[in-house]
Amino acid sequence: MEAREFKNFAYGHFTKISKALSSPRRFELLDYLAQGPKTVERLAKETHMSVANTSQHLQALREARLVASSKVKNHHYYELADSEVAELLQLTKRLAERQFPDMGEIRTMETTADGAIPVMSSAEALEEVASGRAVLIDVRAEDEYNSRHLKDALSIPLVQLEEKLGQLPPGKKIIAYCRGAYCLYASDAVRFLRERGFEAYRLDEGPADSAISREIEEEKR
Amino acid sequence: MEAREFKNFAYGHFTKISKALSSPRRFELLDYLAQGPKTVERLAKETHMSVANTSQHLQALREARLVASSKVKNHHYYELADSEVAELLQLTKRLAERQFPDMGEIRTMETTADGAIPVMSSAEALEEVASGRAVLIDVRAEDEYNSRHLKDALSIPLVQLEEKLGQLPPGKKIIAYCRGAYCLYASDAVRFLRERGFEAYRLDEGPADSAISREIEEEKR
DNA sequence: TATCTATTCAAGGTATTTATTGAATAGATA
DNA sequence: TATCTATTCAATAAATACCTTGAATAGATA
After folding, report:
1. Nearest-CA residue to the C1' of D4?
2. Predicted confidence band at A221 (pLDDT cuts at 50, 70, 90)?
3. How far apart are CA B22 and CA A6, in angstroms?
């Protein structure tokens, strides 16, 4: 194998990975898949894409070996092919936040905008929950909670928030989280809770995110 | 800001990073830049690209904030914008090696091919060097050695190997390294040395690579 | 000032990527 | 078997990325 040929082979393979990650739609799909396995249909609904388009992107991701699929009845379940894929997503996000100033701001932007959503850092949340002054709620869908969630978090999917208000201890702070800083469910939950008198905050991360959330300790089941 | 708009903003920024990484040429450029700052001209020569094309790719990398440039006289020096960029490169490579079987093989392929190049793992090299049974030589260009190299390594650029043969202790094993597993200088060096009776090996990594090489300890100056 | 060198810019044709649409497949249910 | 549903395939048009070429800039040297 000649030198040039060797390099093309090597760099061609490396860039299969980044090429697959280079479409916003596909990045979003992976972000959802970091929450746990999902069907094509479900992904299409969550990302507001057509099923055909979703499927096509998933093919691309599978060819780059970023996702794997399995078949149960006539549903195809897709999931991340390797835990390092989640790391890659995280590292890319962190780099973008560091290098693009307006990107970094967005994490706290909701705080300053009109109809402010107070954001709590993971470090602070850890203390508040440990001392019993706050409870943590996971407002993602139930299966996402089941596939992985933060320790001591209650599962209260956003759509069920109203009916499950009784489960929330009055007087304590409520810290809501969803997929991460770029998912809006937790903000919706905080807004809803504040309108009803709760001292609610949104967490700045999700369970698939960085090192700090490891300290809040995840449970996998 | 609407939900859709917010997502487009966020994912659009994330994918600027991966889009920049998604061209084999640009990935190669970054790989060279991980060895230290370089001018456009030098990069063009090393990658065998036209200067205009190199410059254009560097623009793309700069827009994605993966590289930064500074001006000295009428030379523009480019370098990685953040240490996390090097991590991103590494993680991508590691993932490709794990997920593509033929990719993983290539690291040791030279061992099995005709005119075999024996490869030594970093772990083994660490022992051999520590016990004094082997010496480590860095066959990259001198400025790359100066910008960062493995501990106790001698700088012997490939082009000077013949004239510096006298610096090599006879009887000891010689372990050569260059940019990493996908750079061919070290292999050329090993072939050359074996023809002259040395027991030579190539290291499976380079100074910008993974955790194991940290144990061989890097020096930065 | 004129000239040289390193770098960037601009224009082009070709190739690749994208989302949409409608048809095809294949397993489950009746 | 016929029918339904979930998923993939195939074809298209629009948009984008790629490398080449030749010109333009701007700093250094004479």
Report:
1. A74
2. very low
3. 18
